Structures are given as C-alpha cells and as structure tokens.
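Lab meeting, item 3. Inverse folding demo.
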C-alpha cells in the first residue's frame, strides 16, 4: 500500500475477527514502527504485547474494577475536561459511533455495554501496552515520543491488513495491567493499542471520523505565493 492510502484509509477498529494474530507479525509491525523519530534518538518506549489468557485476565480485572467504581488510575495527567471545539469533536465522534451501532442517547444499558467493550479492549486478540522508563517521567517529551511510535504502529498495522484502536480505557485500571502484563515498577504505562483482524461486519468499523481543515489548523507565514 502507498503511504498516503494507508494514512487516508486507516480508521480506528473496534470489532475484531476471532482469529489470532501471529507473534511474528506483531514483531514485524513493531520493528517497522520503531523507525519513528524521537527526541535525541532516545527511543524511550517499551512494549508489553499481551494475548490469550494474559489479555483475558486484564479484560476481566478492568471490567470488574470499573463496574465496582474503582477510581481511574491512569499514569498520566488528564488536565481539565474538554470544552468548546474539543468537546464538540468528542461528541461528534461518539454520535457517529452510536448511530451506526444503533445506540440511542437515553439507552443507558446499551451505552454501558459500549463502555464495557472499551474496558475489554474491544475483545481484540492482542493488546500492546506502551510504557516508558520512569527515570524520565516528568518530561513531556517521553509521552510525545510514545505518541509518535503509536501512530507508526497503527499505520504500519493497517498496511498489513491489521486494525487497531488506541485505547485509553484499556489502561485506566493500571494496577491490573501492571500485574498481568508483568510490567515492572520502573515503567510508566502510557497507553495500549488493541489490535487484530478487522471484522468488516462490525458497524463501528465503518465510521470515518472528521478532521478540521488545514486552514483551521495551520498558519503559514513568509511564503511568497
Ligand atoms: C491517546 C488516544 C486514546 C484513545 N482512547 C480511546 C478509547 O479509550 N476508546 C476508544 O474507543 N477510542 C479511543 N481512541 C481512538 C479515538 O477515538 C480515535 O482515534 C479518534 O476518534 C479518531 O478516529 P480514527 O482513529 O478512526 O481516525 C483513542 C485515541 C488516542 C490517540
């Protein structure tokens, strides 16, 4: 696939075929994606790639703790809640997803079911938990660098026919992830990526999210034309 086609056609995948992903293929995706640039070439990321029983235990723990109301223990700052244009975009994508999934606004049960899917990492066969060394925690550069490699992972995966969703819900209960993925205390958990073969029949997989225009995002200065 051409690079532009990959970037234009990739979308978040939230429904997967019940078909395993070979470890070697995930390894190849990581090897390519790790060509991502990083600050001073520090490559601060580490990956805990989980599948099978290990991932099932994480799903179970995530769901149980969230249903029991255990507070979120994400290992990064969330900042203030989204407002204005950010909030509008957040609502827009939720509306798009709920519309194709047939989830009504006031259907609390269906909405909760959707949230629980997220905690289950959308039942993906693989999850890649992305961490970085605690020794550099506090600098905003390490999470920035992790974002760079995560973007490369989802696009590389797409080029191989794999679908992904970057999934903050999957690491909201970080002690569960840490325990079952055997993540040592010297690592900060940044995010996880649910990965697998896309289920083309799953309605949410057809959703194409909108983007603001280049004119809204970019300010060009000093050009002659
Ligand atoms: C840091 C980050 C965290 C995300 N967490 C979630 C999540 O918890 N649940 C989810 O369904 N999607 C999650 N997403 C996916 C975004 O909703 C998605 O990328 C965005 O709506 C744009 O859609 P697209 O990926 O299909 O282009 C996350 C994406 C990023 C970059």
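The presenter then showed the designed sequence:
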């Amino acid at each position: 696939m051409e690079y532009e086609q990959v970037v234009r056609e990739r979308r978040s995948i939230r429904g997967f075929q019940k078909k395993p992903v070979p470890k070697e293929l995930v390894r190849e995706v990581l090897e390519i994606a790790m060509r991502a640039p990083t600050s001073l070439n520090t490559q601060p990321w580490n990956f805990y790639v989980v599948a099978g029983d290990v991932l099932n235990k994480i799903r179970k723990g995530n769901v149980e703790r969230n249903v029991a109301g255990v507070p979120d223990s994400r290992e990064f700052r969330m900042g203030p809640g989204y407002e204005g244009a950010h909030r509008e975009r957040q609502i827009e994508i939720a509306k798009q997803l709920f519309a194709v999934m047939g989830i009504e606004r006031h259907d609390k049960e269906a909405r909760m079911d959707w949230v629980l899917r997220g905690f289950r990492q959308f039942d993906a066969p693989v999850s890649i938990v992305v961490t970085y060394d605690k020794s550099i925690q506090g600098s905003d550069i390490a999470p920035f660098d992790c974002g760079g490699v995560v973007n490369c992972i989802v696009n590389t995966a797409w080029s191989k026919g794999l679908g992904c969703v970057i999934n903050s819900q999957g690491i909201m209960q970080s002690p569960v992830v840490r325990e079952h993925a055997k993540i040592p205390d010297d690592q900060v958990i940044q995010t996880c990526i649910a990965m697998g073969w896309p289920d083309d029949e799953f309605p949410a997989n057809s959703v194409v999210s909108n983007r603001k225009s280049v004119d809204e995002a970019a300010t060009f200065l000093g050009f002659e034309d």
